[in-house]
Design brief:
By secondary structure, the protein is α/β, with parallel strands linked by helices. The chain has 27 helices and 18 strands. Strands 5, 6, 7, 8, 9, 10, 11, 12, 13, 14 and 15 form an 11-stranded mixed β-sheet that branches. It is elongated, with a radius of gyration of 40 Å. It starts with a helix and ends in a 9-residue tail after the last helix.
Length: about 750
């Protein structure tokens, strides 16, 4: 029986039961209320339809309900009622048939919207292996169509649909990447489906300007556009973000620039950036907007140590305010530590500073901050897994599918994202999965904004942007001010202002004999005044050199020559003086020198003392020739030394170095003797330790590694005395387990 027949039979039965004089009034009231409710419900549930469809559905319900009410009162045989059923029913049925035909026609208006997706999926689902699934459109705009996919209950889940995405696109004859299927959080037998044009982001998208200038960092950042046309927005508070991508994929200009470019516009954000890989090339244009920029190891170490020291103070401050985490208006700038090419930084850091950086990553969130890092491949050889595990993921193009497991999240891997298909052919395309990214977008490609069609124009645009939002315009809290003070204002050097001292030294050493237009320190002066001026300048320069070496924990003449702008021979004299003053050790077999003074609070006192006292040996280099009468010409034959002179000049043969086991036994015996003699504490320049070092014949680096080893097992304990590192023998028991009894030193 057709719907009209069923309605007629129902109306006849209703009239027979309630059409009598005693009940007809109540039946009419009930039918009227029911008609009103059904008509209103139809209008509400059809809200996603176009207006014509919504009106059509509601009018049909209203007409059918009104006829049923009338037929209940008069009966279906009444002439007006029967005519309305015949002519009105036929008209309504024909109108619905017309709409159905239009929907099935490729030129029909509604086919361009959501109904076309349902029809297209129905035609393609069997070919794609999705038989039994249905699609219902929920949203249509100029860039995408969103739909709900109803899956066969007990037969499929959203993961099955995701795995069939490629087949669905093929069966529907859509571009690869057009269909995105994600989980419905409410129903396991449903999935969310989105269809958009992946080619929409194949070309650069110009930067539209800051999203919330002057607002809090608590407002979302806008860094690009998704494939479906939605803006890429996320709130960068309460988590860390790792950016991975191959060379040329856009992770620096696309990722770092857009994120930090947004951050510097927020009134309560402070960005500190480290880039020891590209100097000023990447982050230089943002300099005015940054609260600190470190492009050298020494400056990076300063920043890490300063932030590490301030984090406990910030957490204590928040605790006093009754806050578990940073909140807008708490009075603290939200810190963002940005590190470009973090793998290179880890190569530079020593063990203690690497631990400090790891602790920053673990603790900065509670203190009101987050980390933003970038690298090419985030495997364990490039970055500690402890740090990688703390990171949300943003992945640009990569060269190898194997790189995916390091650069994307677990749910992105399940969704089978494909950044390896881009490589570096589409700079700026990426995937983002972070706190606040919804199910519809975590596996959808995006394109970060472009700051200019050429590198020069992009740099100019970024410089202008940073100048419009300078860090100096923000009111810094006491903790931020101390970190900025630790960095100083000069990024060109790694110490306070070495340029002035270096220039003074160059002026003091200037003379016609220097190949660089400057004389070396070996050239003497002629007067006491000149000698006094030299000594004073030299002392200041020596202090600057000491500060550079201690801060960077690296000592080489080449570094001092470059940083202090000195001739090579003068830099070599500085290194010799620092060794005489026991600030650095002698070169090992590879030519490296250990820095014997730690870069902590006591280092400043050591440097100040060195500036006051200077180096007497270097001052002696400027004295007059002790015997000007002793001369030699180029043709004069050199007289051979006597046998006694030759014997005195003969150096001892150091012999072959002891093997590692025997050398450890000698060190262990020395620890026992020091402990028994009541003199358990020693420094790196202890005469007995130096003699032992010469006896074993192994490098100084090896000695330090063994000292570190014995410290780890509890034999030794480290401390500081006036900025110098000391070791103390505290427990001999572990020596018995650490050194085999049957191991004897070599003969």
């Amino acid at each position: 029986m057709d719907p009209a027949g069923r309605r007629g039979g129902g109306a006849a039965l209703s009239h027979a039961l309630w059409g009598g004089p005693g009940s007809v009034a109540w039946a009419a009231i009930a039918c009227t209320l029911g008609s009103t409710a059904l008509t209103g419900l139809t209008w509400l549930v059809s809200h996603r339809r176009r207006l014509i469809g919504r009106v059509h559905s509601t009018a049909t319900t209203a007409a059918a309900s009104a006829w049923f009410t009338t037929a209940t009162v008069t009966g279906v045989t009444a002439e007006p009622v029967a005519g309305a059923l015949f002519f009105g029913g036929a008209t309504v049925a024909l109108s619905w048939n017309i709409r159905s035909v239009i929907r099935m026609t490729s030129d029909g208006e509604e086919l361009s919207g959501g109904e076309a997706l349902s029809m297209l999926f129905d035609k393609a689902k069997d070919k794609a292996g999705m038989g039994g699934a249905r699609v219902r459109t929920t949203e249509v705009n100029d860039h995408k169509i969103k739909a709900k996919m109803q899956l066969p209950a007990g037969e499929m889940t959203h993961e099955d649909a995701q795995k069939a995405t490629g087949r669905i696109e093929s069966a529907m004859q859509l571009p690869p990447g057009a269909v995105l299927i994600s989980k419905d959080s409410d129903r396991a037998d449903r999935a969310d489906m989105s269809v958009s044009d992946p080619r929409a982001i194949d070309h650069p998208v110009p930067w539209p300007g800051p999203s919330h200038p002057g607002a809090s960092i608590d407002k979302p950042l806008r860094i690009g556009v998704y494939q479906d046309g939605d803006p890429v927005e996320f709130r960068f508070v309460g988590f860390h973000l790792q950016i991975q991508g191959m060379i040329g994929s856009g992770k620096s200009i696309g990722g770092a620039w857009n994120i930090t470019g947004e951050l510097i516009t927020r009134r309560d954000a402070a960005v500190f950036s480290i880039d020891t890989s590209k100097d000023d090339q990447t982050m230089g244009p943002l300099r005015q907007g940054l609260h600190g920029l470190a492009t050298t190891k020494a400056r990076a170490v300063k920043l890490i140590r300063a932030m590490h020291a301030e984090i406990p103070q910030r957490t204590a401050h928040l605790a006093k305010m009754g806050l578990q985490n940073w909140e807008p208006g708490c009075g603290l700038l939200y810190w963002v530590l940005h590190i470009e090419e973090i793998a290179k930084l880890f190569e530079m850091l020593d063990g203690e500073d690497e631990e400090r950086l790891a602790e920053i990553v673990k603790e900065i969130r509670s203190a009101g901050g987050g980390c933003l890092i970038s690298l090419q491949r985030a495997d364990y050889t490039q970055i500690p897994t402890l740090i990688r595990s703390q990171m949300a993921k943003m992945c640009f193009g990569v060269a190898d599918p194997d790189d995916l497991k390091y650069g994307v999240s677990a749910r992105q891997r399940k969704a089978e994202v494909v950044p390896h298909e881009w490589e570096n052919h589409f700079p700026g395309k990426a995937y983002l999965d972070a706190k606040g990214i919804d199910n519809a977008h975590f596996a959808m490609p995006l394109r970060t904004y472009s700051w200019g069609p050429t590198g020069r124009e992009a740099n100019e645009a970024m410089r202008a942007h940073a100048a419009a939002f300078p860090a100096a315009a923000k009111k810094a809290d006491e903790f931020t001010r101390r970190v900025m003070a630790a960095l100083g204002d000069d990024d060109a050097s790694t110490g306070p202002d070495t340029t002035t001292a270096a220039a003074s030294a160059s002026a003091a050493f200037s003379g016609p004999h220097s190949p660089h237009g400057e004389a070396s320190m070996d050239e003497h002066t002629d007067t006491d005044a000149e000698r006094a001026e030299f000594v004073e300048t030299w002392n200041q320069l020596l202090g600057d050199a000491a500060e550079l070496v201690i801060t960077s924990q690296h000592a080489s003449a080449a570094m001092l020559a470059r940083k202090l702008r000195l001739p090579a021979e003068d830099a070599a004299h500085l290194i010799e003086a620092l060794e005489r003053k026991h600030l650095i050790g002698p070169p090992d077999q590879e030519g490296r020198r250990a820095v014997l003074v730690a870069a902590d609070a006591g280092a400043a006192a050591v440097v100040d003392q060195l500036r006051r006292e200077g180096d007497a040996v270097t001052a002696a280099l400027r004295t007059e020739d002790p015997d000007p009468a002793l001369t030699a010409g180029p043709e004069q034959q050199i007289q051979a030394p006597t046998e006694a002179e030759a014997a005195a000049l003969q150096a001892d043969d150091p012999g072959a170095p002891l093997d590692a086991g025997a050398a450890r036994v000698l060190l262990a015996d020395w620890f026992r003797r020091r402990h028994a003699a009541g003199n358990p504490t020693f420094t790196a320049d202890d005469d007995e330790l130096l003699a032992l070092h010469r006896r074993v014949g192994r490098s100084r680096t090896w000695i330090y590694e063994v000292l570190k080893e014995f410290t780890a097992v509890g034999v030794l304990q480290t401390s500081r005395d006036k900025g110098r590192k000391c070791w103390t023998v505290v427990d001999l028991a572990p020596l018995d387990d650490h050194i085999p009894h049957d191991l004897q030193p070599a003969a």
